[in-house]
From TrEMBL:
This is Serine protease PepD. GO terms for biological process: proteolysis. It holds the Pfam family Trypsin_2. PROSITE patterns: PDZ. One of its GO terms (molecular function) is serine-type endopeptidase activity. The lineage of its organism: Bacteria, Bacillati, Actinomycetota, Actinomycetes, Pseudonocardiales. It comes from Amycolatopsis echigonensis.
Length: 538
């Protein structure tokens, strides 16, 4: 019910329409006066004057239904023949100024029609027409007798639940054939059923006081506790498997402090994370690892690789840690489901899920716009990644780590891509493929530094597409293979090269000493043996 509902005594409409409130003021609304054929009633005139749109009782207006064919009577301006002003016409009449629920017959008001108790006609209580005022029959406050006999509903009609046996809530007009209007009439009936249901319910509630027992969800017993095993391949199962191995890393240095994520890769305390997470603590800073159970342990940097944004730290004073299970990233498929776990905004153990949105996406995870030292061949995902997720695992639905969450697309940054410290999640995140991270972590643990794959040539974007080679380092893999400055690389093996960053990313995903076939813009192919060189950790 709304503020202007005449069925609510305290509403604006209820206060204005005395017919909506039983009592002395609304006495006229409870009386029934037969409308006069071919003569507008005073209520019809009032509806036309007050609303400037309501049809008279002589016209073809029905309180809730569609009007039948006939004259519009002497209603307000704008009324035309066959005017179908309905339930929400003139303000003064609220729901119309004609028979309560029926449809007017052609040519005038129906014989024996009953005024709408909520309309201007009912409120005005006509005193000038032939006949005497008729008090409502017991048990029949809203309906009128059916044509064809007193209190005799036609076959199939709904019985009046508030009246004596044989009465009906809604008046039923005499049936007549009307060309081209069957669909409209059926639609009108459907609409009426919905509207009347609300009105009748509200009216009965008002009259009876809405008494009856209520049902409350607060009184219902708690459901049984969840039992059984977590479904395999669900986000829940991945979270249960990985969460004990994911840590929050709190770092501080002489000039800055921050936090990120990491995950355990050995039971004796090695943790894999991003270089940009621990960089501020690399030279004399402090790192503290916070585990899922709340335990804390100090950690030290073992080694880091700024070119791949990978670092390894080791905690001390704890043992028997649970390492993650590493998967593989060379067989990922776009669209497969993934789960990300980390500590965004210091919210430890946050789990999100999504899909692999794209593969082999060249991303700069640090440095300036022209810096190619941090270009990675990223996995793109729509799993929510925010500042603090950096260094955390991206896993498949078997709970195997297939990437390290490292960067997000940030519309507010100058180039759109950030290391996770700019902006927030917009559904575009990037992770380092685990195949590349595994190789780098092994080098760091064994030697204390990473090994970078390279060809020994500068590279820029080619105007016509592809990667154009610049200066060639003497003795480098590029020179040994016969590549020249000015050559434009368009493909490595089966991968299309459309930019300089794509070439850099494609080379770094491969291991040193791998063989690769370079296709050049002039159609030549060149076999290149990739080289490897130590990465200085500054």
């Amino acid at each position: 019910m709304t503020e202007n509902d005449p069925h609510v005594p305290d509403s604006a409409a209820g206060r204005q329409d005395p017919g909506a409130q039983p009592g002395t003021e609304g006495q006229a609304a409870w009386q029934q006066t037969p409308a006069q054929p071919d003569q507008p009633s005073s209520a019809g005139s009032a509806g036309g004057d007050a609303g400037q749109s309501a049809s008279s009782a002589t016209g073809s207006t029905a309180a809730y239904g569609s009007a039948a064919e006939g004259s519009a009577g002497t209603s307000g301006p704008g009324a035309t023949s066959g005017d179908a002003s309905g339930a929400y016409g003139a303000p003064a009449g609220q729901y119309g100024a004609a028979p309560v629920y029926g449809t007017a017959q052609s040519g005038g008001a129906p014989t024996g029609g009953t005024p709408n108790p909520w309309s201007a006609q009912g409120a005005a209580a006509p005193q000038h027409g032939p006949g005497t005022q008729q008090q409502p029959t017991a048990g029949q406050p809203y309906g009128s007798q059916y044509p064809g006999g007193p209190h005799t509903p036609p076959a199939g009609a709904q019985a009046n639940p508030y009246g004596a046996p044989g009465t009906s809530v809604y008046g039923v007009p005499a049936q007549r054939e009307k060309k081209g209007s069957a669909g409209k009439l059926l639609a009108g009936v459907a609409a009426i059923s919905l509207v009347i249901g609300g009105v009748a319910g509200g009216t009965v509630g008002y009259l009876t006081g809405g008494s009856g027992s209520s049902v409350s969800a607060l009184d219902a017993p708690k459901p049984a506790q969840q039992t059984g095993n977590v479904p395999a391949g669900s986000v829940e199962s991945v979270a249960q498997k990985l969460s004990p191995s994911v840590v929050e890393l709190q770092v501080s240095g002489r000039t800055a402090a921050g936090e990120g994520s990491g995950f355990v890769i050995s039971s004796d305390g090695y943790i894999l994370t991003n270089n940009h997470v621990v960089q501020v603590a690399a030279n004399g800073g402090q790192i503290q690892a916070v585990f899922q159970d709340g335990k804390k342990a100090a950690a030290q940097v073992v080694g880091r690789d700024p070119t791949t944004d990978i670092a390894v730290v080791k905690v001390s004073g704890v043992g028997n840690l649970t390492p993650v299970e590493l998967g593989r990233s060379d067989d990922l498929r776009v669209g497969q489901q993934v789960v990300a776990i980390g500590s965004p905004y210091e919210l430890t153990g946050t789990v999100t899920s999504g899909i692999v949105s794209s593969l082999h996406r060249p991303v700069q995870a640090g440095g300036d716009e022209t810096d190619q030292t941090t270009v990675m061949d990223a996995i793109q995902t729509d799993a929510a990644i925010n500042p603090g997720n950096s260094g955390g695992p991206l896993a498949n639905m078997s709970g195997q780590v297939i990437g390290i969450n490292s960067a997000i697309y940030s519309p507010n940054s100058s180039r759109g891509q950030g290391s996770g410290s700019e902006g927030g999640n917009v559904g575009i995140g990037f992770a380092i493929p685990i195949d590349q991270a595994r190789r780098t972590a092994q080098d760091i643990i064994k030697t204390g530094h990473a090994t970078q794959t390279f060809i020994g040539a500068k590279v820029t974007d080619a105007p016509q597409g592809g990667a154009q080679l610049g200066d060639i380092t003497p003795g480098s893999p590029a020179e040994k293979a016969g590549l020249k400055s000015g050559d434009v690389v368009t493909k490595i093996d089966n991968r299309v090269i459309d930019s300089a960053n794509t070439l850099v990313a494609a080379i770094r995903t491969r291991a040193p000493n791998d063989q690769a076939t370079f296709t050049l813009a002039d159609g030549r192919t060149v076999q290149v043996t990739l080289g490897g060189q130590p990465v200085p950790a500054n």
